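Replying to the earlier thread about multi-chain prediction with a worked example.

Input:
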Amino acid sequence: MKGVKGVFAILSVATVSLLSGCQTLNGANDALMNLVGPSTQSRLQGRYVEHTEVRQYYRLDPQHTGQLRLSFDGRALPADEIRQQNLVRIPQLETYLQGIVTRLAKSWPGQAPTLQVRIVDSYAFGPSADPYGNIFVPLGMLENVESEDEIAAMLGHEMSHVLLRHHDRLAAFQQQKELMTNVASTVVIAAMAKNTGLDRSTGKFFSKDPLGTQKTIGNTVLYTALANSFSDNVWSTAWGRTQEDQADLLGADLMIRAGYAPRASSVSLQRLNDFQGKQKPLLTGFLEERQVAMTESLKKLDLNATTRELQTLLNQGLGTAIASTGQYLSRSHMSPIERDDDLRKYLQREYKQQSRARVDRRSWPQVRDAASVQQALQGYRDAYAATTALEQKKTPEAAAFIARALASPVGNQPGIRRAAFSLHMAQGNSRAALADLQAIQDWSLASPSIYDLMIGHHLRNGDPQAALAMIDKAERNLGSEELFITEKLMANRQLKADGQVQQVLHKCEQYPSRKEQCRKLVPKSA
Amino acid sequence: MSKTFLFLFSALFSHSLLAAPMIEAFTDDPLPVLDEQGKPLRDIARNSLPKQAIEVLQWNKELDLVQVDLGGEKVWLDTMSVRVNPPLNIVTMPCQKLSTSLSDDHQNNSTLGYGAGCAK
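Result:
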């Protein structure tokens, strides 16, 4: 047990120092308060937009503004931050949604960054925002809302995440997790080094204390898993809830200042609740999952004895503590209804005069039902229906839906063409499937997976020039050189362009998650 | 008159043919009682309200009011003052009914969303 305590102590110290040492983690206390105490809304006096903690964001940080521009002008966006969905182009609808964002932005008393609405081919309900000022509106949201006020409530919420720079905290949280894993790896290596000797007569390494090393490694794996799971489930929950509360508050302030009816924010949260349905509590099965994961990893290390010991430890002590934390979280985590209750109290307190303001139920249906918008939305509905039919092995039905989708005004957009590609692949017609992708008109709308399909096709068919042209398009449209850098290397190798190979390899080595793969593709002798 | 009645009737019952909407909780204390146009009439303290769920008789969607029977008197309440189940505001495509291949949000790691999303 001494070793267990030692590892736990090292990781605990590491966690505390990592959490306290980072400026962007300063909200940790507030987050914890929000997790175990009353909500942000109930602790607040006055309107949130006028609050001191919000005022600090009135002035746009020039460095931050620079970062906002970076994703579109350069090719330096990290690969894991690129949008994964196809964009949807429906000009009339985009202009309308952008107009709502502009109206909301005017009600922000500070300087607003450039905010760009982008419709995405997804039937999820909730919009999302990235740190670069993109507000992604899924088709599923547009299918379900009934008024402009509802749209404003949801877009105001997303804008608030950007205005309050919540993404900075998200990045800090992810960084903290990586550091934790690094600390754990160091502990493992140190333990192995300490207990490993070299037999000079044979030139082979041997373990001086196999059982001790095994225990240390096992415990480190255990505590890293626990610490990271704890981070995931507790800290992200705590911060998540704080951020959602703050975005609900500021979003409501913005929409009311812009002249929308506050009740619409409650309506959209009710719809969100209906969309999510009965969700599994965040931490249900948490402990079991950790046990399975650890048992698996330890089996690979062939540490059966340690596994048994850890299991006992989990069953007897730590498990109980974490499970009870989990139960608390699963009760109090940010359900839309909880958010709605808190928001209603805030609106009642701060905006009593506007409480009976009526929702505008006319302007949104006018846009939604305009011929061009209606036809485009129907095209995407048909593509969605085709995908559903394909999943149910109803190929003839899927073909009928695809025929309609392709005949719609959005027939040459990536989301529709991707669905047609899936149909033709299911029919065994790879030539037609390829033609589906080649017919995409505007590649700036395409998701990384569609680029991946095309680049892979060109490389397999020995057409590196076409692959490079597609990679260039992906770099320009997705804003990342990292994403297809290994494919770029492969294409240049196929071309036997040695100078280019070395140049790309040099760039690839700047990306930690890619460099090993690139090095394997270009052996030293090459 | 009959047109209005039909609208209110269909608005209420097209939502769910089986489960009549019930008010499960009052979120305001005191609870404002309104006239059919949404004008305040009087307030009722929460402790004098029924503890059990009460049936929603009508829903005026345009004015966002629900009519209930409180102690033999039919009154109108703001939907923001009550919690109704099944809810009045729902979606046509809930997460559970989405195709598996389309339900995942596929959002990038850097986005913050409106809710928990839909990953099945």
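The first helix of chain A runs from residue 2 to 21.

Feel free to reuse this layout for your own posts.
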